[in-house]
């Protein structure tokens, strides 16, 4: 069934960025398109076998610096919209690494938003890790990992303004017996963005997917259908047989091209997230709503909490890797409710939205 139709876009405030221009960035070489695409993106001539210079060349923008830059940029944009500032909390991890947690809560527009950076390094439990990643690493050798990431979660006050989540990360694995100038034995990128409305509005979901498809198609026309399907499968609550939202893109273990090329894609994907979400937020933040609408929003936010605590790999990794718990859980909404055995009234806006969330849809 179709999603909810609520007014017209022209009746609601729209930012100037509602019609985004094509995103800048370099195109990959034609030879890269010949490589097969699979969920783990492994190829026979994977560049993981070569030395990556992405952390070693100080003249190039590296993931850590870019994450810090995007954190500041996103916080600035959201602060201007809300009229309130983000907190700033830098913390150190005893086992190696640091993080910067920035949160805005109880705002005019945002019930809660977090924009976090983490740079984590340390020894890794190779047996379970190698098995999950299907890696063949040298026995008797110790390895250390280094991962940098930017994580964003936004929960607006208005029930018709969707929540959203985005994450962009870079992982490297090093031999501990190698010198400081040695490159990683393997690397990969991961990330994505998804839209999580309480009330599914067709034009919002289509717009969000259209922007992400555009940036994916710029690099590889196989990216969007693969990443979109992966997103639908990942952000799924099997206990409810429901999707967390209307999806977007999700990718992991992306290593089928040189790190510098993949980094360009990840940077453009992060820009696309802003272009995809801010116009939707602008259209919906002043939509009138009732107590019933707010209650449904809090029920759907309960689903988000369920997913994060029960199924999200990132949350489990952060907790198991002794990353700061307050920062890991800062992406959770400020409020949610859990009614026992709640069922929306048939034919209601809530019921129509739930039907969409139970069946993945091709939005573009």
TrEMBL record:
Keywords: Oxidoreductase, Porphyrin biosynthesis
Coiled coil residues, start to end: none
Pathway note: Porphyrin-containing compound metabolism; protoporphyrin-IX biosynthesis; protoporphyrinogen-IX from coproporphyrinogen-III (O2 route): step 1/1
Single Gene Ontology BP annotation: protoporphyrinogen IX biosynthetic process
Region described as Disordered: 17-54
Cellular component GO terms, alphabetical: cytoplasm
InterPro entries attached to this UniProt entry: Coprogen_oxidase_aer, Coprogen_oxidase_aer_sf
GO-annotated molecular function: coproporphyrinogen oxidase activity
Subunit structure: Homodimer.
Transmembrane portions of the chain: none
Source species, domain of life: Eukaryota
Record's protein name: coproporphyrinogen oxidase
Pfam families referenced in this protein's UniProt entry, alphabetically: Coprogen_oxidas
E.C. code: 1.3.3.3
NCBIfam families listed in its UniProt record: PRK05330.1
Organism: Smittium mucronatum
Family statement: Belongs to the aerobic coproporphyrinogen-III oxidase family.
């Amino acid at each position: 069934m179709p999603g909810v139709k609520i007014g017209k876009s022209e009746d609601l405030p729209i930012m100037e960025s509602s019609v985004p221009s094509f995103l800048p960035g370099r195109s990959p070489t034609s030879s890269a398109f010949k490589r097969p695409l699979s969920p783990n993106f492994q190829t026979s001539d994977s560049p993981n076998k070569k030395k990556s210079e992405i952390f070693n060349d100080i003249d190039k923008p590296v993931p850590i610096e870019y994450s810090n830059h995007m954190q500041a940029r996103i916080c600035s944009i959201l602060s201007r919209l809300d009229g309130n500032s983000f907190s700033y909390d830098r913390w150190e991890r005893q086992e190696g690494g640091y993080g910067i947690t920035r949160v805005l809560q109880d705002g005019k527009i945002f019930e809660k938003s977090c924009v976090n950076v983490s740079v984590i390094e340390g020894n890794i439990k190779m047996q379970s890790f190698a098995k999950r990643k299907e890696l063949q690493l040298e026995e008797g050798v110790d390895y250390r990992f280094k991962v940098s990431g930017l994580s964003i979660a936004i929960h607006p006050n208005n029930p018709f303004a969707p929540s959203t989540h985005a994450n962009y990360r870079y992982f490297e694995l090093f031999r501990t017996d190698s010198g400081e100038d040695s490159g990683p034995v393997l690397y990969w990128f991961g990330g994505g963005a998804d839209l999580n409305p309480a009330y599914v509005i067709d034009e919002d979901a289509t717009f969000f997917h259209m922007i992400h498809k555009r940036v994916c198609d710029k690099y590889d026309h196989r990216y969007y259908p693969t990443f979109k399907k992966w997103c639908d499968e990942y952000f799924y609550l099997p206990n409810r047989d429901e999707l967390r939202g209307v999806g977007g893109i999700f990718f992991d273990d992306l290593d089928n091209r040189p790190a510098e090329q993949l980094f360009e894609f990840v940077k453009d994907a992060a820009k696309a997230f802003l272009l995809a979400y801010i116009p939707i937020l602008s259209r919906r933040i002043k939509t009138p709503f009732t107590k019933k609408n707010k209650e449904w929003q809090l029920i759907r936010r309960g689903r988000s909490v369920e997913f994060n605590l029960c199924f999200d790999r990132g949350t489990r990794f952060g907790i198991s890797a002794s990353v700061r718990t307050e920062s890991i859980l800062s992406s959770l909404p400020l409020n949610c409710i859990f009614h026992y055995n709640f069922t929306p009234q048939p034919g209601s806006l809530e019921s129509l939205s739930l039907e969409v969330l139970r069946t993945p849809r091709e939005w573009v």
